[in-house]
Amino acid sequence: CERVIHCLAQQASEKIDRTRAHAGEIFIRLLYMDSPHLPHIPHHKELLEIFPRNECLEMNWSAPAECFPRITKLLGLPSYRRPVLLGLTVSVGGLTESLVRHSYTSLLSFLKGVSSREEDLTTFAETLLEIYRTNEKNDRIIVPLFKMLDMLFSNGCFELFTQDESHPFPQAVLNLTKKEIFKLGDARKLITSVNVFCGLLQFPGVTRMKSFQQLCIFLCHKYPQVRKTTADQLYAATLTYDDIIPAESLDDVSIILSETSWDASIEELRIIRNRLCDMLGIPHPVLKSSTAKTSVKIKKDELESYKDLVSRGF
């Protein structure tokens, strides 16, 4: 019974109107089933308060404006936090304007209530990371998750964590996102990840430095659109977050990001990018392919030397 209720709660918070409506109606029916009474419903009393019979039996679950303000309240109930957040991830990162607006507004409203309470915010963040880890390489979840993270970072939902340079949440998001895009050829997904790395710049210390490094790698990516988007979003981040760039370098960094033609050849852009790295105080990205070629060449030279020795009778 518990698993069924959790699945219904997840589907009642997802993006497809018809699925959400069907799941929501069944959820309410099971909640108020009298004969026989359905046992083992987690947080039954709290659910009855969130979904009063007289208001919810006729509720239009397919209308985002009606369902999300209520279903989002389930994030405060431990048993429902993960399935509901999983469903909301797909909705908040969806494509339909009405769906995104109402689901995100409801999620933001919930987070504003817990953003000043470190324990509650940490619990939410840990649930978010759990969803991230269990859905690696699953684009149905990860791409909307990137969009949702961008929205949450942009609205300062995790500002409480910026006070601790070694906070595990931003570092975990950084590592998971880098792992997700490793050797990725999907330009759309790469572009979506750019905003996540830009949002991570608000967190000081190692997280900021490694985010800058990844963004600088993107500035010389083989896809021009990835380069352009990175420059645009990084420029916007310099305007949003006051302290992420040394004051003496801010103007020069802004000029490079806004005035460089990112359609130029990668060889030309690499020189500009490396100058930008110097201003940001981060090491230049190293081409792994060059290292690999050098290694192969060394091995080949050693082999040639061995053959030469054999031919000479040694």
TrEMBL record:
This is Tubulin-folding cofactor D C-terminal domain-containing protein. It holds the Pfam family TFCD_C. PANTHER family: BETA-TUBULIN COFACTOR D (PTHR12658), TUBULIN-SPECIFIC CHAPERONE D (PTHR12658:SF0). One of its GO terms (molecular function) is GTPase activator activity. One of its GO terms (cellular component) is lateral plasma membrane. Residues 3-189 form the Tubulin-folding cofactor D C-terminal domain. It comes from Desmophyllum pertusum. One of its GO terms (biological process) is adherens junction assembly.
